[in-house]
């Protein structure tokens, strides 16, 4: 078969076939003396499989991993894993639709959080003019859907009712412009770590927003002394999580 023929047989374009060759996803077949590629039925089977995997929503890098992992495995096992992944995606889509339904039932404002549970948490928080408290609110909205959803927001409710929290925000405000070795940093960080309920740590999923890029972006949003406090809080909470695991 020529490239146009195998492309028509599988239902893709010749350009797609060439792209798969270029990225190494589909091995180049042998060529005739005139330079034309000669495709076999085995090539067609592989190309058809690539097409099916991409139609299931897998990225090309994921397709490459699946094909590599599939060597020597039963087809039923491979399809079972794909079905489980589709079920996970379906669950996430249903959750997003429930959130949208709740939003459509209530008043919509430009700065409204997507999650009704987060909205209730923010309503419960006492009014304050603290800049760092405002940042905390923005960060919660930014991380919505990543840090565990309703369970985390419910676990955070005691913090909203804790009268000791606002003074800690104000002390964090006072560190604006201070040096990164200010003596107020360590004790404030310790108090903030201690104020976080165990229920919050239990509700945070294992795969959370811990990527280095995110952490650095978060720290860059604060002044040096404030960032030092936030860094210590991250480390302290991580240590508490490790202690709970052991």
TrEMBL record:
Family matches, as InterPro entries: DNA-bd_dom_put_sf, MerR-type_HTH_dom, MerR_fam
PROSITE patterns: HTH_MERR_2 (PS50937)
Superkingdom assignment: Bacteria
Domain HTH merR-type: 1-69
Gene3D superfamilies: 1.10.1660.10
UniProt-listed Pfam families: MerR_1 (PF13411)
UniProt keyword annotations, A-Z: DNA-binding
Descriptive protein name: MerR family transcriptional regulator
GO molecular function term, any single one: DNA binding
């Amino acid at each position: 078969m020529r490239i146009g023929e195998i492309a028509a047989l599988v239902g893709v374009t010749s350009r797609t076939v060439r792209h798969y060759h270029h990225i190494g996803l589909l091995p180049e077949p042998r060529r005739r003396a005139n330079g034309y590629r000669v495709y076999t039925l085995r090539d067609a089977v592989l190309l058809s499989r690539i097409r099916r995997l991409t139609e299931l929503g897998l990225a090309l890098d994921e397709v490459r991993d699946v094909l590599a992992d599939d060597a020597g495995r039963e087809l039923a096992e491979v399809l079972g894993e794909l079905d489980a992944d589709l079920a996970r995606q379906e669950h996430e889509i249903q959750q997003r639709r429930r959130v949208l339904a709740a939003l459509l039932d209530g008043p919509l404002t430009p700065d409204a959080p997507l999650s009704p549970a987060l909205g209730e948490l923010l309503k419960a928080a006492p009014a304050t003019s603290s800049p760092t408290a405002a940042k905390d609110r923005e960060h919660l909205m930014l991380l919505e859907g990543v840090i565990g959803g309703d369970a985390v927001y419910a676990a955070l409710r005691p913090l909203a009712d804790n009268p000791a929290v606002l003074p800690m925000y104000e002390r964090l405000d006072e560190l604006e412009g201070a040096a990164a070795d200010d003596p107020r940093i360590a004790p404030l960080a310790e108090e903030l770590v201690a104020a976080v309920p165990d229920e919050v740590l239990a509700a945070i999923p294992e795969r959370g927003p811990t990527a280095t890029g995110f952490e650095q972006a978060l720290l860059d949003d604060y002044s040096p002394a404030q960032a030092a406090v936030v860094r210590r809080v991250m480390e302290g909470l991580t240590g508490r999580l490790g202690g709970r695991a052991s």
